[in-house]
TrEMBL record:
Pfam families: ADH_Fe_C, Fe-ADH. Its cofactor is Fe cation. This is Alcohol dehydrogenase 2. Keywords: Oxidoreductase. The keyword Endoplasmic reticulum does not apply. Belongs to the iron-containing alcohol dehydrogenase family. Signal peptide: none annotated. Residues 12-181 form the Alcohol dehydrogenase iron-type/glycerol dehydrogenase GldA domain.
Length: 387
């Protein structure tokens, strides 16, 4: 941890979690007094059990629910524009988001446009809007992005073909989040892997960040513990409610702090990779993780030893460098156990694109947070190692 004169940590979202936590939606709707609510739902969940429960709870609360499901796996500005138009037509007073990070990020951005106006591209950056968005109730269907509690949304600008980050520490997070194992019980195994590793990387990179602080440390260490303990049984059986709830809580905890600490080289590489190739964000993180972690090890070996400990390794009495290597090995074993592809070439990435991706990764300037200063040449080396 870098010693700082001042720091901050906040969690504006009220989180409900547990089996049948979805039933708490009725109290939320009742307390809000809303009558027209837009439900932004992942198209794969339109006819799901959890969507049926949401509709029933809304009906019992006297709420008119309008569904919007025009969402791509990687959220795009066109979806936001279409959803915002429907929101205006229906005079929606609040939004429910059911889905993974894509659905929640689209819902966040719709809510911002509904109260602030303008166009999506105007929102790129930090604190680019000043009016609170429509109230958002986020119900994640994956245990990965943590978008339900984070202050960020990532939307693809289709005109420029780049991913825009929209951040606001106060107005960015959802007002309410509901973590119910029912919502993630039907996730395909490969999606569970990608989302779960993404959540682990959030906690891992936030813990290594140059802006880490005592509050973020506590959250991230427990998040890594929860995820590493539960991801294997959850991937093996998504109806394992204990493992599912552990993953949901770990994912949400991991997302609480990276808005404060920033992330690192893994996410930097994954963002560039996902912009150039049709590779899901979580999968891109998973493939890049071991290589970026190895590069960062020398920057803070003590923290890698902490990672080893929370991942179940016995590091008592082990020299610092050896304990750090155990942390790196534990990460590699986790990826192996989850059958994460080992190489970028396995994702149909071509070798001639590596130098260009390295250039773009360097330009993103994650050196602000990454524990080890990283040059363009370093990114070339990491991408080639991953290739």
């Amino acid at each position: 941890m870098t010693l700082q004169k001042t720091g901050f940590f906040s969690c504006p979202t009220q989180v409900r979690f547990g089996v049948n936590a979805i039933d708490g939606l009725r109290d939320i709707l009742g307390d809000g007094g809303w009558r027209n609510v837009l439900c932004v739902v992942d198209p794969a969940l339109v006819d799901s059990k959890i969507m049926t429960r949401i509709a029933a709870v809304a009906e019992a609360a006297g709420v008119t629910l309008t569904q919007f499901s025009e969402i791509d796996p990687e959220p795009k500005d066109k979806s936001v524009v279409a959803g915002a138009a429907l929101c205006q037509t229906q005079k929606s007073e609040a939004i429910i988001a059911l889905g993974g990070g894509s659905a929640i990020d689209v819902a966040k951005t719709i809510g911002i446009l509904a109260t602030n106006g303008g166009v999506v591209a105007d929102l790129e950056g930090v604190d680019r809007f000043s009016i609170a968005p429509l109230p958002l109730i986020a119900i994640p269907s994956t245990a990965g992005t943590g978008s339900e509690v984070s202050g960020a949304a990532v939307i693809t600008d289709t005109a420029r073909n780049v991913k825009m980050a929209i951040r606001h520490a106060r107005f960015g997070p959802a007002m309410h989040a509901i973590l119910d194992p029912l919502a993630i019980s039907t996730v395909p195994a490969h999606v569970a892997v990608h989302a779960g590793v993404d959540a682990f990387v959030h906690a891992f990179e936030s813990y290594l960040s140059k802006l880490a602080n005592p509050w973020s440390d506590a959250v991230n260490l427990h998040a890594m513990r929860l995820i590493s303990e539960n991801i294997r049984p959850y991937v093996a059986n998504r109806e394992n409610t204990q493992a599912a709830l552990g993953m949901q809580n770990g994912s949400a905890l991991a997302a609480l702090s990276f808005g404060t600490t920033g992330l690192g080289n893994v996410h930097c590489m994954a963002m560039v990779l996902g912009s150039r190739y049709p590779v899901p964000h979580g999968l891109a993180n998973a493939v890049c993780l071991p290589h970026a972690a190895r590069f960062n090890l020398i920057a803070n070996p003590a923290r890698f030893g902490d990672v080893a400990r929370v991942m179940g390794m016995n590091v008592r009495g082990v020299p610092e460098r050896e304990a750090a290597q155990m942390g790196l090995d534990a990460i590699g074993t986790l990826c192996d156990d989850l059958s994460v592809p080992k190489r970028l070439r396995d994702l149909d990435v071509t070798e001639d694109s590596l130098d260009t991706m390295a250039k773009h990764a360097f330009q993103l300037n994650y050196n602000r947070w990454n524990p080890r200063h990283t040059t363009e040449a370093d990114f070339i080396s990491m991408f080639r190692s991953a290739y």
